[in-house]
Structures are given as C-alpha cells and as structure tokens.
Amino acid sequence: MRIRPGGQVTLADVARESGVSPATASRALHGGGGRVVGQDLRERIVEVARRLHYVPNAHAQALAGGSTATVGLVVHDITDPYFAAIARGVIAVAAERGALVTVGTTFRSMERELEFVRTFRAQRADAIVLAGSGFEDADYRAAMREELDHQRRTGGGCAVVSEHDLPVPTVLPGNREGAAGLGRALVAMGHRRFAVAGGPPCLTTVRHRIEGFLDALAACGVPLCDVELLDHPFSEDGGRAAARELLDRGSRATALFCVSDVMALGALDVLAAAGVAVPDDLSVVGYNDVPMMRRLVPAVSTVRLDLEAMGRSAMELAVDHGSADAPVVRFPAEVVLRASTAPPAAVPAREGGR
Amino acid sequence: MRIRPGGQVTLADVARESGVSPATASRALHGGGGRVVGQDLRERIVEVARRLHYVPNAHAQALAGGSTATVGLVVHDITDPYFAAIARGVIAVAAERGALVTVGTTFRSMERELEFVRTFRAQRADAIVLAGSGFEDADYRAAMREELDHQRRTGGGCAVVSEHDLPVPTVLPGNREGAAGLGRALVAMGHRRFAVAGGPPCLTTVRHRIEGFLDALAACGVPLCDVELLDHPFSEDGGRAAARELLDRGSRATALFCVSDVMALGALDVLAAAGVAVPDDLSVVGYNDVPMMRRLVPAVSTVRLDLEAMGRSAMELAVDHGSADAPVVRFPAEVVLRASTAPPAAVPAREGGR
DNA sequence: CTGTTAGCGCATTCAA
DNA sequence: TTGAATGCGCTAACAG
Predict the structure, then answer these.
(1) Domains present along chain B, CATH in parentheses
(2) B69 vs A contacts (CB less than 8 Å)
C-alpha cells in the first residue's frame, strides 16, 4: 500500500489553536482520567476540533494505552451464507459493545488463517473469533494454539466456532448428532443405499458430520460398504463435482447427503441438468439450513443450526472470559425434513421397511 | 471493551535477548530502510523472536510511519447477498495488494455510516469504500463529502459504489437504464397496470430505479396514475410488507416491480402464502440478480449487475487515484427475463398488444 | 553492517 | 481545573 503523507490535524494543532495544552484538549475531547474540563473551555475546544476536522489517530490512542475496540473475525468465505449469518451475530454483539469488526477471509487456507490471527494480534484486537471449521493438521493446530494462547495471556479474548480442539472458549454446533439424526431419518424412510458428498476430510466439521452420519447408519444395520464417499471441495462447485461423480459412476444410491447446504445447491444444479428427479430418483439433504433451502423447489431437507445465535455467543464468550477458563457452549441441531426427501422408489412406503 | 494489561513481548525484548540494538532487530525482522543485516545475526534474531512469540505492534508500526495496509468497507448489511458479492470483490483486490479489509455494517443508518467513515479515518485506513446506496439528504451528503475530502487530502484513497453525488471515484451500476429496460420489457409483454415495491425514497438507488422505471412506462404511453407506489423498507421484510399492502388494497396491477431482489424474495413469500399465482395472476421482477433468483420456482426475472466486478473496480479506484481525479466507471445492467414474468392473463399474448 | 538518537500522536502520570 | 513531562513500541534518519 501507499505511504501516507503527513497532513493530519493532530491534537496538538487543536490545543494550539484553542490556546490550551494538549493534555487539556485530550481531556476535553475524550473526557479521560476522571478529570473534568471547564464547561466553556471544553466547548471552545470541541468547536475548534470540529472546525479543523480533527480526527484522533487511533494508532496513537491504542499505543498510548487506550483500548482498540476492535474485534477480528476469521471466516472461510464471507459470501457463504453460513458465515454471513455467523458474522451477523458477531457484528451485532460487537456493535452493542462499541467495537468494530474486522473480517478476514481465508478461502480455506491454513496459512492464511494463521496469518490473519497474527495480524489481528498485531493490531491488538480485543478479541479474535474463528468462525470457520478447524483443520485436521497437527502443525496447524499447534501453531494456532500458541497464537491464541498468547492472545489470551496478553489480555485479549478469543473464541472459536466449531470443533477446533483448542483450549479456548468454544461454540459447538451439533455436527455428529445432527448428521446422525439425518441418517436415522433417511433409514426410517426406507433408504439403504447412500452417497455422501463430503468436503475434504481435513476439515473437522466435515469429518464429524460424515462420522455421525455413518455411525447412525451402522447402528441401523446398514452395511457401510454400500455407502459411496464423494470427496470434493467444501463449496458449491464441490457439490457440483460430487454430483457429477455420482452420475458418472452410475451410482445406485437412493439418497445423497451433502455435508453442507452450499454443496447441496451445487449438486442439485447438476442433478437437475441431468434430468435426475428429486426426490423421486434421488433424495437429497444438506446441512445448516441457510435461508435459501426452504425456498427451493423441492424444498431441501437439512439440519437447522441457529447460526446467528452461534455468532452472538462466540462474541460474548470471547470478551467475557479470561485466559483461565474455556467454556463450551453447545448448540443443538434439528433435523428438518422437507420435500427433497422421500421414501426410495424401489421401496414404497411400506411399514417397517427393511 | 476491556483494557489490555501489559505483557506484550516487544521489539526491545527481542533486541536485548539477542544482544543487539532495537533498530537492528527491527531491520532483521522487517528488512526496512534498504539496510541489510548480516545473515547469521539475522537468523539469530529471528530465532529469538520466534522463541519469545514476538508479535509486532501494528499501532506502533503505523504510528512510526509505516503503512497500515488496511481498507475500510462500509455496507448496509453483510448478510444481504448484494453486499456480500461486492465485499467479495473488494476483499479479493485488497488481498492481492496485501491489505486487510475491515467491514462496517450500518443497517442503513446515516449516522452510523458517517461514524464508520470517521472510525476508518481514525485508523488511518489506506482506503475507504462505501458500498451502500447514498442518502438523499443534504446534511449527510455535505458531512460525507467533507470526510472523504479529508481522507483523500491526507493521502488516503476512497471510492463509492452507487450514485452518491460525491466528487470521488465512483462505480456506477446501471440503475435508471436497467429499470427502464425492465419497464419496456413488461410493457412489451402487454402489462399496463403496475405496482412498484420501493424502499424509502431517501435512498438514491431506490429513487433512480423507480424513476427509470416510471420514465420508461411514460415513454411507452402508460398513464403513470395507474402505477401504485408501495413505500416500504429496503429489505426482505419490506418486500413482505409491500406485498401485503398490495393484497390489502385489492390492487389490479398485473406486474410488480421490486426495486431489489431481496425485496422480491419477501414479496414472493407473502404472495405464495396468499395463493397468488406467479406469473399467472401477477408478474414479479426484482433487481441485481443475486444467485438465488435463478433457482427459485418460478425463476425470478431481474436485472443483472456484475456485483463482484463492481467491488473489484471500487477497490482499484480507491487505491489508484489521488485526490485530483474522480473517475466514474459505469457497469451495464442487463434485463434477464425468466419465468416469473408473463403476459397478463387479461391480455393474451396477442401480437401488438394495446 | 550496526548502534544512537529522535520522534510519530496521544493519554496519563505528576505538579502547579 | 490546567499545564508540563513521560513513555507506549516502533521506524527512520543519522552516525559510527
């Protein structure tokens, strides 16, 4: 970025122009230190500041010991409605507390994620919130742990959303349980052959959802060897790729579990283009219940998470907890069955199934 | 926010521990000033810094004359896909240039918008981008003009998306033309009686779209007194309210123009619940072509704007232009007719209409 | 190549 | 109530 030339109006300018000392100007403008400035004097100073368009230098203020009133939020992709909803919650609480939110977008890169945390630490953010899924990587985890550790040790707050396996305040969405509930619901409907469109297993969220789903199937007596695992990016395009793979390999699955709504969106696109009828030929489910899912035709079955509340909770945990404790707040997941799921054609809705 | 207790590891600590001067440590760690530090010495210092978990204080760096590599982005609502798309463009370009983006969410309050700009100025942001519509308010405009003026005068960049009538770099989406094209298309289809679900006319974007639409209708000979103006908030809920008003007053309109897709979404919800068939009973159109519109059933006719490109362009304008010039980059709007629009039932698709 | 000196703009001790 | 002095952590001159 460009170097900024001088030309700023400083507190000293305001003080000189008002005929007072910088200290007095500072007190008049920001009322610090419990000290009070004479009514008329203050008014005069404020007036001069306005006339000069004085804007305090936030860096100087921070450096001189004041608070930065800044919160760093790390997300994978701000255009993903999942993160948008969480961000909304975080921003709302931050606003209530007079803090500004800085959003860092990592596009799912571990290096970038660490880099953002370091940058936020450099900015001395009052709190750092990690909204994205953690990675299944020992080095990453150790590095992140150290960063957050120091963040807290130096008086800053932090919180993570999703399982990161880090000793910091954590907001835990029901991933295993929700996916398990979905699995049971599908089995109860009569499905026996499944495909799972999963993101990369290095994402903890992905792994948990898949495990929860498979565990439930196994518990219901479904042979897991019949489950096709489609491993693709955790994105709309990834969903598209998964659906294409499904089609290409001539899958016999009657139900497709996409580990996120966004992936389901992509998959549905490809399926529609290929003439696959949902749910008649194939039932499709997603995860998160972002607002769009209920409006599609057919409306998409999914698992509801109160994303905005999770964001709010994360922000609150981040600012309200010292380095001592690391509370965990769990958010329940609720299976929402809609029109994109139906008993498989081969197994009419006969009672009892099997 | 909480005050941050001390405990930070400083450059001085690293220097002392390494047995060198702070200046040397600074150079070794950040390689500034063209000066070079001896290979082995540097390595030792870097090692010490790592061991101590040294994180430079960004405020001190900024204060001492370095760049802040920070960009402030002001939006009305980050969960609105319109802004999410623009933000994505802004973030992408900022990332290319090594800058971090700070997002401020105003929820359409003029005061908050000004407050964010002041805050970004206080943070000495390298650039400030206003992504939301401007307001039709002389005081607001004058205040914003002064703020941005000073931002630029002090070496910072800035840019606005949408008509703000400010002498700064501007990205202009086709609002009047797009809305006019929509109006003509609807008239060509045979529609004569219209309703317009508009946001508050104090938003410049809203006013331009409505004016463009009405002008086109007038040019086509449609009596404007037959156009019902529904004035509601510029949001999904506003769209809902507009549709309810339409229903309540027993409107005879055959086509509903919603000034944004998000409003159209809300309106469609209410219409569906009320049993109004789209497009058979009522044609509905939106604006912006956010990704969801093409997936709804019926797919929604709208006006396409390349939002992400607009965001990219704004960011580029902001950093590449000094206070001298204020270029205007126009982005074309393209009418996209889909299934939510059809000739009105009363006027079968007879050639020529009228 | 490295150390020394001097501020960046502000809030906050202290003294008056 | 106000003013003077100090230092936050760092970088950018200058010397050496």
Answers:
(1) 11-63 (1.10.260.40), 70-173+307-332 (3.40.50.2300), 176-305 (3.40.50.2300)
(2) 1
